[in-house]
Amino acid sequence: MATKKSLLPIIPVRGFVIFPKTVFHFDVAREKSKNAVMKAISGDGLIFLASQKNDLIEEPKESDVNLFGVIAKIKQILKLPDGCIRILVEGVSRGKLTGSFVKESLYEGEVVYKNSTDRDLSVEEYAAFLNQIHYLINDYIEFNPKLATEEFLKDLPETNPSECSDAIASNLLRDNVDKQELLEITNVKKRILKLIEIMTKEVKILDIENIIAAKVKQQMDDHNHEYYLREQLKAISEELGDDKDDEISELRARIESKPLPEEVYSKALKELRIFEKLSPSSPESNIARNYLELICDLPWETYTEENRDIKAAKEILERDHYGLEKVKERVLEQLAVINRSKNTSGSILCLLGAPGVGKTSVAKSIAEATGRKYVRISLGGMKDESELRGHRKTYVGAMPGRIVNALKQAGSSNPLILLDEIDKIGSDYKGDPSSALLEILDGEQNVSFRDNYLELGLDLSKVLFIATANDMSTVPAPLHDRLEVIELSSYTAEEKFNIAKKHLIPKQLKKHSLEKSDLKISDKVIKEIIQSYTREGGVRKLEREIATICRKTVVRLTEGNSNISVTEKNLKEFLGEKKYTDDKISVTPLIGVVNGLAWTQVGGELLQCEVVMLPGTGKIQITGKLGDVMKESVQAAISFIRSISEKLEIEPDFYEKKDIHIHFPEGAVPKDGPSAGITVATAVASALSSIPARSDIAMTGEISLRGRVLPIGGLKEKSLAAYRMGITDIIIPKGNIKDIQDIPAEVRDKISFHPVENCEEVLSLALCFKEKKKADKGNINFTKERSLGREYTQC
């Protein structure tokens, strides 16, 4: 019998396989496929349907489709709004592509008809096969009750073995590969045997799926579909024998390889066993994983080798910092003790000073000098104790505290941890972080510090803690007791000059990619910047001004200029007008105006006190945004002046007839503290007695009701401020004589210090008494000699 061939249009189909004598509808979207449909319906309606080997290929070639397919008759077409064509086809016969496949506008090729043969299939064999198929179909129904088989079994063409096998394969089989394999078998007996084999395999798979579903059902809540899916994945893993994934194996290997303490090792294994039982997609799994990774990341019993060479440490400190001799000396003492005792649990250093004086950079240099890893923890604004101790794992989003994270970051159990801005810790209903620091900084307690998240003892005794602060008055007393305060005082103009020349300018040149030949800044310019463009205790603003010059230099170099020089004449082109004018004091003494000295977080300041007397009823008005302590000091000073009014030849009832207005300029700046007591007393005495006060003298000291002058703090910063403003003499409390040695030599050489014990001595030194005043007025000496030997034409 001759083989029948036809030239037919072809549609490569995706996702399904069609058998002869089956009716099927599908959408056609590709242009070549739509052209093939149109050509088919223009003729006899026959078209060849061949399934693609890879459904993702958009433009298939002959090698991309199965050669065996179905010759189908197009029964109906429907054009859809989206441009696709929906067609209804009925399989006619098996076919095999033998000719060309791709043409310019459509798929077309020569197809050979492949008829089924059942000559070797006896009636008895077919009956046996049919019984076996019925058994398998019943198993299908048992394992998959949702399968709609009633109509299918009723219409099953059992009298025709070929059509019967094709109908079963088309309706029951799930795998397109199996369907394609059956489509390619033309021998009916072999096809039925292959069908029975495939159905037997699918029944076994369904049986296993039912077993898995039964296991899952015992462990799940009937109303929790999501949980059901997770448990099903777990049961599938157990059925396949995959009870360890790569992640668990990796964590176990890391735990085994790290030198963990006994307690930590036992806890890690326990958490790992819990992690193994959790579903990978459950929230508890993420918590357990993060906890185990933290244990593995922490540097348990891992230490960096420390540098114990004191000479090398001294060289590093000298290289990185100019001046600060006392600070360097104390740091070297601490390092020497640590090296000798091999123990870091001694005193905790706290570097106290104004912003920009180098506290953080000193800590970095200490870390480099000792060979320790450096980690900085900013405490400014911290109000929650849990930020240091960590959150318990029961909370959503729980995490370890900053101390644990610092050790993790350092990768060492003996780093240097800088507790920056320790004076700016707050507290609220969530706790007080300073209380947590009591344990962290106590050498007797931090041997086994327990973080709330970690819940394991962590040894902090080898950590070198260094704190920084601007003002120790805000630090709680118990925490203050654990700190050894090293004060970094404000820099003098000479120290700033050397810091700028040796450190700041080279640093900014490097930062802006400039060579020394590109920019030259003279010494006079540096001093002018310090004097007229900055007013601070440190050098942070000075560095900003130098950075501004460097940026403008880069612009000029880009424009074609070269070898930029900054001089006193062109400095305004780089930095603009002077920010601070020459504030040198006048030599003219004034009545009721006295120079006081104040300490601020950015250094010392000259603070004038102005007093005027007005006719009135004895009211006292105080302005200048003063704090409570300063207001009380003003009241004490006025009471003292009233007590010696007779000696000053002041009307004894002045407090009833005159109003006193006391003012401190710069009213927008808050002021507080007791050290302005003698300044107020001198200004009030000057105003009441109409005796001018010397303008080249400044003073600082607390006053008592009896006139005693009590010690104050911040003498060095106050002296530097007086030196900067041209003051030649400073009156200080006698109790502050010991602090004079801390003042730089260049300041001591220019300023005379006058220690006093009572306020009457202050008045003798500060007021310009006339020569006719005699020394017979009590304890006050009104001679010119007590007025520092200077004559004033105004007195």
The level of helicity is: 40-55%
What is the arithmetic mean of pLDDT? Answer: 82
Neighbour order of strands in the largest sheet: 18-19-17-16-20-23-24
Count of β-strands: 24
Overall 3D form: elongated
Tally the helices.
27
Uncertain stretches: 771-795
Gyration radius (Cα, Å) is 47 Å
End-to-end CA span:
146 Å
Largest beta sheet, briefly?
7 strands, mixed
Percentage of residues in DSSP E strands: 15-25%
Class of secondary structure makeup: alpha/beta
Structure notes:
With 795 residues, this protein is of the alpha/beta class. It is 41% helix and 18% strand. It is built from 27 helices and 24 strands. Helix 2 runs parallel beside helix 6 and helix 11 runs antiparallel to helix 13.
Task: Briefly say what this structure is.
This protein is of the alpha/beta class and 795 residues long. The protein has 27 helices and 24 strands.
